[in-house]
């Protein structure tokens, strides 16, 4: 008699797992900038915050190597395998297409057999360091949305630094250090991204996780973990993106951390596979990269949902009466109020903060959103339906949540630290950004919450 019930429950659990697996992507888009609505005065535009879809950004970059003659093949050279110094049958010859390894092979289609890759000259000038700078430039501000992944065809470097620029390569700051021995290489204590908290998310760390020699296939990759950092606010499976968007909306340093115009990979020491360099077989030591992945979107300040690549340059197709490569200023004759970046809040539409015509008077409309919201204080931050204040908070005039003692945040989603000791939440180190009532922001989120309740029975 229980079998039908159990089978039905199993089907529900399966559906829940599938739905939750795809849940984060469903509300990570902000892909519509405006839509027509009916008001008491007739048809009007309802403006919303919007951003382009995330995509593979390596299709739009320029790559530069320093020193420029560091690529192998001129003159031709024979290489030995790192794991077997007597297996020396790999030739690099820049004048022969089948034997050449130019930089563009770091960004071509993966899955070919044999694998294509860029390769440096060997360490033939040892003990002079074999160092290479690989600079990736977009000539456009980019927002990173996924891990940066480098795949090495040779052993992974024993010392490496990933750097970023926000000003088109004029200045650089480290993103992360990589070494087999962080203390020896950079005088830094080794850490991993799992050691970071909400409070220390912007810290620059040195990790030893990606600097071992090539042993197994999965030992060929080096990562800069974007999603693990997102998860400090959005939860382990990124289900609570509202919390992350709230933080990005109010914390410029956090937005800037995930924003770049250029990346630089500083290869400082190749894999040696041992404590000592074999000076009799220096052709074993070199760098070779088969793939670089950079996933992101054009930064358009939430004023565009598309970005075009025209005449070798990326540019936002600006909405909301804005203009410029990043939609960072108002169009001519639309300076009725100061330009402002769009806002992710309130979920799910955000606030457009559109530019309005010069000398535009007060807006008297049944639905003021047809002109966007001039500032964040005018946005509907909370209500008693979809945008509930959490953890016992109450909504005050749709403008802000009055939080219960011990909680803070736009929607009271973070636990405050109590006293001088450590916070109770071991993940955040400061405050849990995951709201206890997660999934009640919009219709999809409400459905997801019901599915989660069903999942607890599984």
Automatic annotation (TrEMBL):
<dbReference type="InterPro" id="IPR008211">
    <property type="entry name" value="Laminin_N"/>
</dbReference>
<keyword id="KW-0325">Glycoprotein</keyword>
<dbReference type="InterPro" id="IPR050440">
    <property type="entry name" value="Laminin/Netrin_ECM"/>
</dbReference>
<dbReference type="Pfam" id="PF24973">
    <property type="entry name" value="EGF_LMN_ATRN"/>
</dbReference>
<feature type="domain" description="Laminin N-terminal">
    <location>
        <begin position="46"/>
        <end position="297"/>
    </location>
</feature>
<dbReference type="InterPro" id="IPR000742">
    <property type="entry name" value="EGF"/>
</dbReference>
<feature type="domain" description="EGF-like">
    <location>
        <begin position="378"/>
        <end position="413"/>
    </location>
</feature>
<keyword id="KW-0677">Repeat</keyword>
<dbReference type="GO" id="GO:0009887">
    <property type="term" value="P:animal organ morphogenesis"/>
</dbReference>
<dbReference type="GO" id="GO:0009888">
    <property type="term" value="P:tissue development"/>
</dbReference>
<dbReference type="Pfam" id="PF00055">
    <property type="entry name" value="Laminin_N"/>
</dbReference>
<keyword id="KW-0245">EGF-like domain</keyword>
<keyword id="KW-1015">Disulfide bond</keyword>
<keyword id="KW-0732">Signal</keyword>
<keyword id="KW-0424">Laminin EGF-like domain</keyword>
<dbReference type="GO" id="GO:0007409">
    <property type="term" value="P:axonogenesis"/>
</dbReference>
<dbReference type="InterPro" id="IPR056863">
    <property type="entry name" value="LMN_ATRN_NET-like_EGF"/>
</dbReference>
<feature type="disulfide bond">
    <location>
        <begin position="403"/>
        <end position="412"/>
    </location>
</feature>
<feature type="signal peptide">
    <location>
        <begin position="1"/>
        <end position="19"/>
    </location>
</feature>
<protein>
    <submittedName>
        <fullName>Netrin-G1-like isoform X1</fullName>
    </submittedName>
</protein>
<dbReference type="InterPro" id="IPR002049">
    <property type="entry name" value="LE_dom"/>
</dbReference>
């Amino acid at each position: 008699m229980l079998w039908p019930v159990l089978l039905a429950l199993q089907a529900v659990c399966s559906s829940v797992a599938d739905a939750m697996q795809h849940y984060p992507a469903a509300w990570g888009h902000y892909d519509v900038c405006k839509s027509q609505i009916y008001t008491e005065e007739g048809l009007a535009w309802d403006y919303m915050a919007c951003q382009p879809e995330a995509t593979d950004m390596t299709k739009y970059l320029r790559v530069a190597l320093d020193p420029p003659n560091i690529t192998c093949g001129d003159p031709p050279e024979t290489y030995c395998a790192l794991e077997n110094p007597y297996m020396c049958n790999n030739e690099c010859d820049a004048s022969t297409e089948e034997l050449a390894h130019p930089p563009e092979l770091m960004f071509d289609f993966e899955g070919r057999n044999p694998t294509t890759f860029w390769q440096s000259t060997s360490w033939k000038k040892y003990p002079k360091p074999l160092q290479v700078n690989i600079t990736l430039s977009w000539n456009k501000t980019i927002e990173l949305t996924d891990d940066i992944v480098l795949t090495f065809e040779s052993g992974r470097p024993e010392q490496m630094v990933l750097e970023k620029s926000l000003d088109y390569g004029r200045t650089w700051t480290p993103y992360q250090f990589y070494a087999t021995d962080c203390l020896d290489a950079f005088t830094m204590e080794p850490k991993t991204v799992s050691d970071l908290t909400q409070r220390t998310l912007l810290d620059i760390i040195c990790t030893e996780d990606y600097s071992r020699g090539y042993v197994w296939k999965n030992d060929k990759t080096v990562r800069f973990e974007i999603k693990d950092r997102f998860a400090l606010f959005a939860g382990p499976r990124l289900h609570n993106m509202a919390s992350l968007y709230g933080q990005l909306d109010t914390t410029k340093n956090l937005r800037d951390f995930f924003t770049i115009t250029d990346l630089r990979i500083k290869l400082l020491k190749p894999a040696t596979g041992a404590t000592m360099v074999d000076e009799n077989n220096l052709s074993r030591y070199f760098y070779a990269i088969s793939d670089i992945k950079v996933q992101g979107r054009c930064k358009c300040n939430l004023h565009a949902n598309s970005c075009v690549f025209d005449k070798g340059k990326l540019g936002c197709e600006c909405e909301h009466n804005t203009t410029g490569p990043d939609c960072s200023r108002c169009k001519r004759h639309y300076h009725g109020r100061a330009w402002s970046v769009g806002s992710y809040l309130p979920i799910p539409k955000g606030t457009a903060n559109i530019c309005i015509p010069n000398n535009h008077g007060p807006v008297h409309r049944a639905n003021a959103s047809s002109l966007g919201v001039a500032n964040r204080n005018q946005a509907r931050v909370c209500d008693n339906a979809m945008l509930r204040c959490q953890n016992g908070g109450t909504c005050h005039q749709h403008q802000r949540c009055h939080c219960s003692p011990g909680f803070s945040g736009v929607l009271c989603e973070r636990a405050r630290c109590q006293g001088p000791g450590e916070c109770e939440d071991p993940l955040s180190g400061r405050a849990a950004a995951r709201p206890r009532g997660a999934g009640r922001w919009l219709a999809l989120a409400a459905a997801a919450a019901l599915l989660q309740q069903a999942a607890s029975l599984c």
